[in-house]
Amino acid sequence: MEFLPAQAETLNDILRWRRDVRHFRTDPVAEPVIDRLRGAMDMAPSVGNSRPWRVLRVMDPGKRAAVQAIFERCNHEAAAGYDDATKAEYVRLKLAGLRDAPVHLAVFTDTIPAEGRRLGRRTMPETLQFSTVMAIHTLWLAARSENIGLGWVSILEPAAVQAIFDVPRSWVFTGYLCLGHAEFADDRPLLHRTGWQYDTPTHWQDC
Amino acid sequence: MEFLPAQAETLNDILRWRRDVRHFRTDPVAEPVIDRLRGAMDMAPSVGNSRPWRVLRVMDPGKRAAVQAIFERCNHEAAAGYDDATKAEYVRLKLAGLRDAPVHLAVFTDTIPAEGRRLGRRTMPETLQFSTVMAIHTLWLAARSENIGLGWVSILEPAAVQAIFDVPRSWVFTGYLCLGHAEFADDRPLLHRTGWQYDTPTHWQDC
After folding, report:
1. Which residues of chain A does B87 touch, with a Cβ-Cβ cutoff of 8 Å?
2. With an 8 Å Cβ cutoff, are A126 and B123 in contact?
3. Minimum mean pLDDT among A13-22, A79-88, B197-206: which range?
4. Helix A127-145 and helix A5-17, axial crossing angle in degrees, nearest 10
5. Which residues of A58-76 are buried (b: 16+ CB within 10 A; e: fewer)?
6. B59-91 pLDDT per residue, tens
7. In whole angstroms, what is the distance from residue B189 CA to residue B22 CA?
8. Taking burial as the number of CB atoms within 10 A of a residue's CB, which of A82, A121, B170, B192 is the most buried?
9. Short-list A173, A168, A127, A171, CA closest to A153
10. CA B144 from chain center: how many Å?
């Protein structure tokens, strides 16, 4: 399989227009799209092919409200950690789309999966969570290619989220995702647009 | 920006043909390709737009040999942890392409980057490493679209790798990557082909 320059360019466009979306329309995501996203996630790399991602689709309004409450508390606490000028800037940012996004996914990592037979993770057990992170990123890109936006909410206390969901003790919380149709598209991160943090290039060092 | 079904299909093909490559040809990767890969990595998502990935391109034969030696030791120790039958199966697997890959990258995460102004990571500091992991995955997909293979070597002791490289104390080791032209292409993981671990589908649960 040899890819052509036009195909590499398509990937580049998807990477460029993928964004952390926090402004969602409330209309649902079609089920066939959800099925394709789940299928894409299964193509993600994983340490020892261990496939440790575990996904809960959160439908229950009570559970959704509980997550939202944790976000509000953690966001308030984060704001309090800044000096006054920065705090004023921080509180103007919209940092989650929990209220409007039609699809909520709580993503966990099984820390003792049978799959993979422990291969590749003895010295770096964190590679299990890393595998789930790459699966989330795969989902993100596949969603963008289907014109669906995704937002990753990290302003959450993991233990509090874990307490909402009845999951096995071996699962750790990796990320909470909002999906839906985005209110607008952009090829720059919102944090760049607002001036919170501009995009900066990475320099590679030779050694 | 609205993507068309053919573009989503292209991403699907790239995801399907991306593999953890361990069989490399020794001929170099062209510098313009390396430049494009670095540019792709800069489009990865990161918590608070913190862009914490730090990349060393390892050219020095002594440093490469030192990494290879750590891999050999860790791989030997991992093999010793299995019962005899599994061990026999394990030692037949080729788990790294360090000897032949023309490009070696040691990837670290800055745990106290100025960029992002601490946003989004107060309750989940692990999201900094997660950001680097998504940058590595971005590099992986971009490489595949350029017909370059990438292998992620995780059978390494982080402290030992860290000791080889003169990096700031705030950097943690995230992953060691081999890049080059692959000896063959496949749309299935090698661990699936060899029977070590078959691909299994993920079930999402509603709650």
Report:
1. none
2. no
3. B197-206
4. 100
5. beeeebbebbbebbeebbe
6. 999 999 999 999 999 999 999 999 999 999 999
7. 11
8. A121
9. A173
10. 12
Q: Nearest-5° angle of CA A84, CA A86, CA A87?
A: 60
Distance from CA of B11 to the nearest CA of A (A): 6
**Token representation of residue B124:** 């989940």
Q: Please write the tens of the pLDDT for every residue from A96-135.
A: 999 999 999 999 999 999 999 999 999 999 999 999 999 9
Per the CB < 8 A criterion, the answer to whether B51 and B115 are in contact is yes
Q: Which domains does chain B have, with CATH numbers?
A: 29-183 (3.40.109.10)
Among A27, A18, A37, A30, which Cα is nearest to A185's? A18
Within 8 A of A117 by CB-CB distance, chain B residues are 86, 196-197
Residues of A in contact with B17 (CB under 8 A): 1, 3
Give the CB-side neighbour count of residue B30, counting CA atoms within 13 A: 5
Neighbours of A33 (CB within 10 A): 18
Chain B nearest-CA distance from A92, in A, is 13
Q: Could you tell me which chain A residue has the CA closest to the CA of B3?
A: A145
The CA distance from B144 to B140, in Å, is 6
Give the Cα separation of A173 and A58 in Å (integer).
14
Task: Answer for the pair A152, A174: CB distance below 8 angstroms, yes or no.
Answer: no
Contact A165 B40 (CB under 8 A): no
Q: Tell me the CA distances in angstroms from A14 to A41, A44, A157, B31, B166, one per residue in order.
A: 16, 17, 31, 23, 36
Q: Pick from A38, A111, A137, A166 the residue to mutate for testing the B interface (most B CBs within 10 Å).
A: A137
Would you call B204 and A137 a contact, using CB atoms and an 8 Å cutoff? no
Average pLDDT over every residue of A77-97: 96
Q: Are A177 and A104 in contact (CB under 8 A)?
A: yes
Distance, CA of A9 to CA of B103 (rounded, Å): 23
Task: Note whether B3 contacts A16, CB cutoff 8 Å.
Answer: no
- Residues A10 and B33: their CA atoms lie apart, in Å, by 16
Cβ separation B141–A48 shorter than 8 A: no
Phi and psi based region of residue B117 (left: phi greater than 0; alpha: psi -120 to 50; beta: remaining): left
